[in-house]
Specification:
The protein has about 425 residues and is of the alpha/beta class. It contains 14 helices and 16 strands.
């Protein structure tokens, strides 16, 4: 049922190992090099470790499946041949039912067409009229759940023990994480998100806003309404060529890299903010320079546009609050398509009042929908759009991502776009 592969036998810090073993008394160890069984026995005296040693130079591993008959947990040297061992895959290969918790129609039909061997159980909710309190009981016995996080969020820590994997339908996970009480046990589930598909939409939005601002499209429209024929030229501080501008992208993951690619196609200078060092082989060729989170002030002072695509998590909240924007260039603008809590609203308004930044283009807000009495509406230095930068990913893309992960799940492989609930992303 469970296979742990670690040729060096280092189990330190692995909560999954200790959790799995807390109620297990026998573990089979398939190994080549000596020493592991002894270390395990000293560390876990209440567990019996059965040794299955192989000398790969002289011993065939053909008999391994039969020797593992009845085994529940296997620690193995990856050079041992487990290809014929049904124990490895038997728990996951038989998945035939998936529960789908959704709001918008069309997904279940797409899933059924793509995966005819799987039964999809529909749990539809109308968020305007339907309570989601009964969701945990409706998921009793479910193993895999595809969900709209707006429905699942309030119940995320009340899920049945049968649930092993949740596939969220959103790129961000804050609708789930905001409902998690970190003082209580976290759900013992795999959580994955839609980690691709939003890049083209969001990068189109970003470059569209930059072009509209630099070419004065909004001003020309207002002039048309007033029947005014007035040009904004380069020489009077009007239009600027994009190739002369620098954009700083906060968050250079899948979406951020797509934004960088589009901006670079206009010959813009592109800077990227990351939480940790990115190996050279994984860096985007469209990002001219990488900065760490602690270098945020160094980044913003070089930017004509600061584009936030970061998720909401402890390390990103209020990243731009306080006086971080005080060193920005004249006419600098903030484009926020990530999450609103990257900057406190009052700090944003203060940065505009003090002319640290010249404009803010906002597609994300603290509350949805934005209240009619919000002070943001009437501020001439703010452009508001109703959370449309990333148009809903087509169901075909969702199906593609889920299908690939379902194959991985059945084979016991690492799932793509996994979320660390302790880090909230």
């Amino acid at each position: 049922e469970i296979v742990i592969c670690d040729p060096e036998g280092d189990l330190s810090g692995c909560s999954l190992v200790t959790k799995a073993m807390s109620s297990v008394t026998v573990v089979h160890v398939v190994y080549v090099l000596d020493g592991l069984v002894e270390e395990l026995s000293r560390a876990l005296p209440d567990v019996t470790f059965k040794s299955l040693k192989y000398d790969l130079q002289v011993t065939s591993t053909e008999d391994l499946p039969s020797r593992l008959e009845g085994a529940e947990i296997v620690i193995c040297d990856p050079e041992g041949d487990l290809s014929g061992c049904s124990l490895v895959t038997k728990a996951m290969s038989s998945v035939t039912v998936v529960h789908v918790v959704y709001v918008l129609d069309g997904l279940v039909e797409e899933l059924s067409r793509a995966l005819p061997d799987v039964t999809f159980k529909s749990l539809k909710y109308d968020l305007q009229v339907t309570s989601t309190e009964d969701l945990p009981s409706r998921l009793e016995g479910a193993e895999i759940v595809i969900c709209d996080p707006r429905v699942l969020g309030p119940s995320v820590q009340r899920l049945p023990a049968s649930v092993k994997w949740i596939q969220s339908l959103f790129a961000g996970t804050d609708r789930l994480s905001c409902n998690i009480d970190q003082s209580k046990p976290l759900p013992d589930v795999l959580l994955t998100r839609i980690g691709e598909g939003f890049g083209p939409d969001i990068s189109t939005y970003v470059i569209g806003q930059i072009i509209a601002r630099e070419r004065k499209f909004f001003q020309y429209y207002r002039n048309q309404m007033e029947r005014r024929y007035e040009k904004f030229l380069h020489e009077n501080g009007g239009c600027r060529n994009l190739c002369d501008l620098t954009v700083g992208i906060l968050g250079v993951g899948n979406i951020g890299q797509h934004v960088a690619k589009v901006c670079k196609s206009f010959d813009m200078r592109v800077l990227g903010l990351v939480k940790r060092d990115v190996p050279v082989c994984e860096r985007s060729s469209c990002v001219d320079q990488y900065f760490f989170t602690g270098q945020i002030r160094d980044l913003v002072k070089e930017c004509d546009y600061i584009c936030n695509v970061l998720p909401s998590c402890p390390s990103t909240r209020n990243l731009l609050s306080g006086d971080v924007l005080s060193s920005c260039k004249p006419r600098a603008a903030l484009i926020n398509v990530g999450r609103s809590d990257v900057i406190d609203q009052e700090c944003l308004l203060d940065a505009l009042r003090k002319e640290w930044i010249d404009h803010a283009i906002l597609d994300v807000f603290d509350t949805y929908t934005l209240p009619e009495d919000s002070v943001l509406w009437d501020n001439p230095k703010i452009t508001i759009t109703p959370h449309v930068a990333g148009i809903l990913v087509p169901w075909t893309k969702v199906v593609k991502i889920f299908s690939e992960n379902l194959s991985r799940y059945r084979e016991g492989k690492q799932l793509k776009f996994r979320v660390d609930l302790t880090a909230e992303y």
